[in-house]
Design goal:
The complex is a heterotrimer.
Chain A: H1 2-27, E1 35-42, H2 56-68, E2 72-79, H3 82-90, E3 98-99, H4 103-111, E4 145-158, E5 182-185, H5 188-199, H6 208-221, E6 225-229, H7 232-239, E7 244-248, H8 249-257, E8 265-268, E9 275-281, H9 289-299, H10 302-312, H11 319-322, H12 325-331, H13 333-339, H14 346-353, H15 360-375
Chain B: H1 2-26, H2 43-50, H3 52-85, H4 89-104, H5 107-124, H6 133-158, H7 162-169, H8 174-203, H9 206-211, H10 219-226, H11 233-263
Helix pairs in contact in B: 1-11, 2-11, 3-6, 3-8, 4-6, 6-8, 7-8
Chain C: H1 5-34, H2 45-52, E1 54-57, E2 60-63, H3 64-96, H4 99-114, H5 117-128, H6 133-140, H7 152-176, H8 180-188, H9 193-222, H10 225-230, H11 238-247, H12 251-281
Antiparallel strand pairs in C: 1-2
Classes of the chains: A alpha/beta, B mainly alpha, C mainly alpha.
Chain lengths: 376, 264, 286
Amino acid sequence: MKKLSASLLLCALLVGLLAGCGGGKAQSTGSAGTLTLNVYNWGEYISDGSEDSYDTVAEFEIWYQETYGRKVNVNYDTYASNEDMYAKLSAGAVSYDVVIPSDYMIARMADEDMLLELNFDNIPNYANIDDDFKGLFYDPEDKYSVPYAYGIVGVIWNAAEVDEADATGWDLMWNEKYSGRILQFNNPRDAFGTAMYKLGLDVNSADKADWDKAYEELMAQRPLRYGLVMDEIYNMMESGEAAIGAYYAGDYFTMLDAQADGVDLRFYYPEPTNYYVDAMCIPSCCQNQELAEIFINFMLSRDAAVANAEYTYYASPNRIVYTDEEYLDDLGEETIEILYPEMEDFAAQYNETAYRNLPQEMLDYLNTLWENVKIN
Amino acid sequence: MKTASRIYTVLLFLFLFAPIAILLVFSFNEAKSLSVFTGFSLKWYRELFHDEATLQSVRNTLLLAVSAMVISTVMGTAAAVGIERLRVKWLRYTLNTATDIPMTNPDIITGISLMLMFVFVGRLFGLANSLSFWTLLIAHVTFCLPYVILQVLPRLRQMDPSLPEAAEDLGCTPLRAFFKVTIPEIMPGILTGAVMAFTMSLDDFVISYFTSGAGFQTLPIRIYNMTKKTVTPKMYALATIIFFVILALLLISNLTDQGEKKKD
Amino acid sequence: MTRSRTLHNVILAPYSLWALLFILVPLAFVAYYAFTDNAFAFTTDNIARFFTATSVVDGAEVRTYLLIFWRSLKLAVISTVLCLLLGYPLAYIMARASDRSQKIMMILIMIPMWMNFLIRTYAWMTILQDTGILNGFLTSLGLGRVHIIGTESAVVIGMVYDYLPYMVLPIYSIMAKMDLKLLEAARDLGCNSFGVLRRVIFPLSLPGVLSGITMVLIPSVSTFYISQKLGNGKFFLIGDAIEGQYVANNLHFAAAMAFILMVILLAVMALMKHFTNRQVYGGDDT
């Protein structure tokens, strides 16, 4: 018994020591001349070389070495939500050089002086960004951010279970015919968003009464819900565990790829619905602004931008991407139609329906209501 | 009675290993799904070996777990011995309570409170990065210590106190008596504590999340962040590999034990 | 003992210092945040809010956080009791088994602990889902489907699964080292097997049982991942509440909840310790 544990520990120690030799990479700032770049992004939000795709980070390191003759080591970390990222950065606990938050979070961080103004001389590829994405509410003078991806919230439904006639508007998510088969967002903003869009209310309302109405709507949905989910939705829709759910457009295609036999997933945009933009920014704790800007510029270049858009299935605001023949071919007409819907005035739609940073009082009220939803 | 025990044991172990069997099977899934098995494929294993970020996080996690285990075992054993012999009531009570605290605290609060403290200290010294591998290590040692202490203390209490005293009477220095008599007596507790410390460190994500700095992500954090999108069978492949590695290690150590037993 | 006092102090010094810096000081931080507001002025509002906030649940007005805490405690206690009921016999069987069997069983118990916790939970989802493995198995036998996922049962199963090894190991650890002569003596004095179990084995194993309960109850009360994944997001436990407040940037209220939770759990543990120490050693042994 003792010997067992002892030899087990010895093995563990040996393995650990071997690992330590490899772990050194992350620690050292390296030999003289090696730069470090800390990037903070959503999980699974970049083409990372899996499934034979383009490894953006690795390619950047190679490209940088070839172009500038110096070695750069990119530390790529991920976060699961805007709030998680904000908490870490606002506490001053860590310093990152590039972060990719969502619109409302960018507005908040800009307000709180957490972002640096970008030097666009270092980001010539910015010219490729579609004009639709400039001058939006969260960065009206385009000082702090470079759009990375954008998306629209839509409803995913299983045609094997749901009648096509019912598949319109937000009403499907409240349809009693499908009681127990409906999924709802497990985060306050998005969940209340669906209710408020359904009722035609402003998702950034300053009136508590509006939020109360949305709350009542969510409570009415309660007996119809299968559950409150975020990433579990993939599993559930793919396997037919649930039949209806709202989620982000790009993710629908991921689910479509993996759906089970007998499951026939479809997608549509109700009106109105949430438009959002994720953009690359440089936080004020950045250690090397120029390097960060070069990285952002690289992300806008053809290979990287197309690869990222293909991998994540999210829509790209970069003109090079959505005019690229290969990209359009790879995704297919149907996919493109859904990802890049025809829009007369994107900016208008966006400004009307995007989430904005709410004043603290409203946020507190929302959180109290959300807690009520959760405990019922 | 014996057959009842056997059946019971088998049932329980079936329960314990059911999810692991699922992991094993789905790691060979053709599709990207975790619930729909479409066909046999080795692609996730190939993927895994190309995924430098995940491999790096595995190395990080191992390095951290081994370091935390060693430090907490040494300090924890010393602490348990010290606490057991303490006669000063208030100090003993305080230390016992302090030992319990990391365990009664929800992970998220231990994590946040340590982060706040590190950030405070970091600001004091004007550091850009308050968090790093070292803060992470400190946090891990802190929550591993109670596991070691709580394993060693009961053994100490079970031990006959006259044994080390006898050794001292026979001429040993207190230190020698400690190493020659006390330690072997409590060794099972120490080893169990060490193994538990290693396991806790390996699997922790909430505390790691709050106390780690840029560039040092551990595996649980990496997986947790991936769950904003979806956990692919690649992770199952990793878990399967870990499973076989552990199994191999354990079998090897078992065999060496058998060998030694034969010599006796 | 005077000879070894310096040695004693040396042994105890590192840990005392560590405990002060990294256990007690952060605790002070939590208390500091719990008793202050956003401007860092002293207030008991956050603490009060925990006890006085109300919500409407199923038409009736309830104390929000007390309800949440009660639910968490209920699930945690159920899981702990189940772990104890399942784990104690297993530890007993293990301790009585041959050396080789013991080794094998130790290995088997520890392996699940080494598998990543998040992945294990996902695997349980695959098993328990309506379209999952369990239901697939039942339907192939001609039996109806069972709806487990999204219910309390699923959350309990997840918790028992995760924490069972932590209950078994400490108990086994004590039992393995038990002095067999005591058991023989009891038998010589006329006890049957059950009597030996009740009068000798169980009381002596109590420190291990207490260890096990500690290692299961505490994490179960504060868990949030399992309830989200296996409960389909329908169960809002105290861990979820604290995380929710943190994410909503209400650090002070989150700290207040944590502080209260900590105090309650410490009190419970102190009570348990006091009680079991009395039983086993027949005297005060804090």
